[in-house]
Structure prediction request, 669 residues.
Amino acid sequence: MIQINRLSKKYKGVDTYAINHLDLTIDEGEIFGMLGPNGAGKTTLISILSSLLKPTSGSFSIDGLDYKNNKNALKQRIGIVPQEYALYPSLTAYENLRYFGSMYGLRGKRLKDEINTHLKTLGLSQFAHKKIKAFSGGMKRRVNLISSILHRPKVLFLDEPTVGVDVQSKNVIIEHLKQLNASGTTIIYTSHHLNEAENFCTRVAIIDHGQLICVGKPAALIAGQDNAQHLEEVFLAKTGKALRDHA
Amino acid sequence: MHKLWASTYKEFLLITRDVGGLAVLFLMPVLLVVVITTIQDNSFKSIQETKLPILVVDNDKGSVSKDILNNLAESNLFRVDTDTSETRARNQVSLGKYQLAIVIPENLSVDLDLKINENVDAILAKFSDNEENIPNGKSNLEPKEVKLYFDPATQQSFKSSVRNNIDKMISKIETETIYKTFQEQLTDDPLEEIFETESFISFTEIVPTKGDKILIPNSTQHNIPAWTLFAIFFIILPLAINMVNEKNQGTFVRLRTNPVSYATVLGGKTLVFLAISLLQFAVMVMVGIFLFPLIGLPKLDISGRLPLLFLVAFFAGLAAVGLGLLLGTVAKTQEQSAPFGATFVVILAAIGGVWVPVFAMPKFMQVLSHLSPMNWGLNAFYDVFLRNAGFTDLLPEIGKLFAFFLFTTLIAISYNKRKNAV
Prediction:
């Protein structure tokens, strides 16, 4: 589904690579977790794959479409749930969803049905006509997610979709993502919640300094690491315990 | 098309939910036009009705000073008080109690008579055969000086106007005295009229007409277009802020991941903000027609010119939106967009002739004024309101406004493309 070849990204004025000649293949139907410490290159990689950043070198394709020549077709096939809420605070949830759905070409009954279905599944039906600025963090996260999946994307990128939400909201979001995946959407997800990733992902990759450190099924990675019971121990063993503060 | 419509509807919702922003967009220009027209209209009226207090020190006490005092009184512009001391008069003016003091010098009437008699005698002697009639030498009369003391706070334009009026009045008195002296020298019969002392040359102002109707410009006809244009261009502020907000809220990033072009996103904003500028114009026209007469200001006359006025407002609105789109695209924060936008609009208005007519500006500023879209819009409005222009007369100005919209929007699109190239 996603083929990444020797992909690199170097920001202006920075000597090191944010993504360093990375090769990766993600298959159709996977829930693929990209894990790594702060500044490892996860968000940069997702930004490149979702057409927000231009790679310095290398190439990638999604669903067989090369990114250079099929930008609009690619955008139609993917959905992106950004780390920050990307919603209009003075519009209602329904108005936000109708607008972003329209940008994917949805209209009429199909658009209305998609909005209502997702609002119901994520427990927001009764708040559909309330303004976003009155929503809690968890509610905003859920609307943020719906905005990206109304068009039923083939690939869904999620950049820390459960950060800062309560356990109930997190549970609803994860369950909904599982349903989406079951209906054929490939999910690529970044998170610092390693327990969540361990349970949720079919395969994970640990990235550090823009390079792929290891990739595999969570259980296989745990089994391959001495004295590891959980993914977190694998993660610390591969990336070290040093703080990764950066500004 | 569906995406453009959805974008337009979203912009409509965003702007209608910003009550404060809407109030600024509609109330600010109404307040501006009411306050400024009232001030301009009333300053003119107050000079006429309340009369300006001036102080005259009459050291002459002769026929000339009497004429000056009579003329000042008849002008209906001044309330004339008199004083006997020049020093006191000067102090009164510098304290701001009088705007002007006129000091008429001693023996002005006598010396003027003497001087003119001397000149007339010399002229008549030249025409005489008898050389004995030629007067011997000239008297050593010093030229007389009428002193004007102005309040230091008086504006230059007002000083010039008063100075010209007094100068004209004194010249007239001098001319009449010359005629009178000739008359006395040439005939013994005081009733015989040798000269017509009425002015031979007079001025008549020909005002534009439309059919049988005379189009008389007034403060309303000047102010409504000027301040409407100012208000229309002020929409670059909420428009740029709207775009910067999208960047801060993350919605702009989301839109970049959506299969929609930047031109479509800008198209939605253009339609809504253009509609707002037309509404602003409609509100200002209604204020001029309905509110102004109620508060004693001249009524706005738009008879038969409404379609052309809306055409100008449409293209002025487009130019303003183009500028707003460019500013919103380039600015990263509200701290960049708001102060820059406000200052830029004020500069465009200043060099565009909204406050000071372009002809009264220094040469360099006059050249600059041709670069201000507000100047193009103002000229187009004046063409319709005051010069009775037709559609074809407006084409150069509205063409420039449209070109400005295309130019700024294309820069915004290409800047965004370069900045966010993937």
Remarks:
- The radius of gyration of chain B is 31 Å.
